[in-house]
Design brief:
By secondary structure, the chain is of the alpha/beta class. The protein contains 13 helices and 18 strands. Strand 11, helix 6 and strand 12 form a beta-alpha-beta unit.
Length: 345
């Protein structure tokens, strides 16, 4: 089969690889589409100690079941599926509290098992029996279904932040995840969604989203503009989706009293400290929350939003490329010349 095999930072070879072997306790999936994630770019450029090469990477996928092992129940050949790619132990304290995404024993597709930048991939028993294989309805296009995993991370974050009907939501950063945040906030009934961005290319893409107020912070003061657009009150929920310390620090100044700030984007290890005016938090009763990864239930919710047509996937998916052009897709992402880039094996 064709596959993209990761050998370490800067080493990604696209060529022939052995087909995964059908076993009694696995499922073989024929991959139909796999989107590039920001973590794929980080893996390619700087690496990640959790990923042990050689490894076929790519975890934002949709595919069709090609074979089902004799010991596997609940799946059939021809089923269309996506995958919740973080697989928890279902035994620890975190899992018992419904926080499977925080499981200390978690294993991940693309790190611990081969993944979706290939024509075929094997799903081991732990993935199937853990409830991580999610059905995809026939009326959800492949390119849309490939967004299920990143969309699930956004959904998890907005559940934690408590986005609700009537809210004003500010999203800092109009990258792929920031645009998904804007769409989910609208789907959850936000009265006003404001998206801030600096680069001209991303601004042009963000302005294609319907019902989103886009602010060019290269020309306007971000905090002043948010205050002006909220009658001086600030936003109910501010989501820092840009991976910079400045965006996280600024988010506090955009929140209204009693508001919530979600630190969604991760900052680089060793450079993640920010200076915070705690008086804003104290006197404004502002809550600061984090959000990491997602659970299978969030992926199911993502598929439901996609099926309901609540997410503008046609705007957010800016490129479709064959597997042979995966390196071109990574370069497009590095240059921020697109939003979601979907690879077709």
């Amino acid at each position: 089969m064709k596959a993209a095999v990761y050998g370490g930072p800067g080493d990604l070879v696209i060529g022939e690889a052995p087909d995964p072997a059908p076993k009694a306790d696995n499922v073989i999936v024929r991959v139909r589409a796999c989107a590039i994630c920001g973590t794929d770019l980080k893996l390619f450029t700087v690496g990640n100690p959790r990923c042990k090469p050689p490894r076929i990477i790519g975890h934002e996928l949709v595919g069709e079941v090609a074979s089902v092992g004799a010991e596997i129940e609940g799946l059939a050949v021809g089923d269309r599926v996506t995958v919740a790619t973080s697989v928890s132990c279902h035994r620890c304290d975190y899992c018992s509290r419904g926080l499977e995404n925080l499981c200390p024993h978690m294993k991940c597709i693309s790190y611990d098992w081969n993944a979706g930048f290939a024509e075929l991939m094997a799903l081991p028993a732990a993935v199937v029996r853990g409830g991580n294989v999610i059905p995809v309805p026939a009326d959800v296009a492949d390119t849309a279904a490939a967004l299920s995993e990143p969309l699930s991370c956004v959904i998890n974050a907005q559940k934690i932040a408590g986005v609700k009907p009537g809210d004003t939501v500010v999203v800092i950063g109009a990258g792929p995840l920031g645009c998904l945040h804007s769409e989910v906030a609208k789907a959850y009934g936000a009265h006003k969604v404001i998206l801030t961005q600096r680069s001209a290319a991303r601004l042009a893409l963000a302005r294609k989203l319907r019902g989103v107020d886009v602010v060019d912070v290269s020309k306007e003061d971000a905090v002043e503009q948010i205050r002006a657009r909220t009658d001086g009150q600030g936003a109910d929920v501010v989501i820092a989706s840009a991976p910079t310390a400045a965006s996280q620090a600024t988010a506090l100044q955009m929140a209204r009293k009693g508001g919530v700030v979600s630190l969604f984007a991760s900052l680089p290890q060793g450079n993640s400290a920010i200076e915070v005016d705690t008086r804003l938090i104290h006197y404004g009763q502002i809550s600061i929350v984090g959000a990491s990864d997602s659970r299978p239930c969030d992926v199911r919710d993502a598929v439901a939003l996609l099926q309901a047509g609540k997410i503008d996937t046609k705007t957010i998916v800016t490129h479709e490329l064959p597997l042979e052009r995966l390196l071109d897709g990574l370069e497009l992402m590095r240059k921020r010349e697109g939003l979601k880039i979907v690879i077709r094996p």
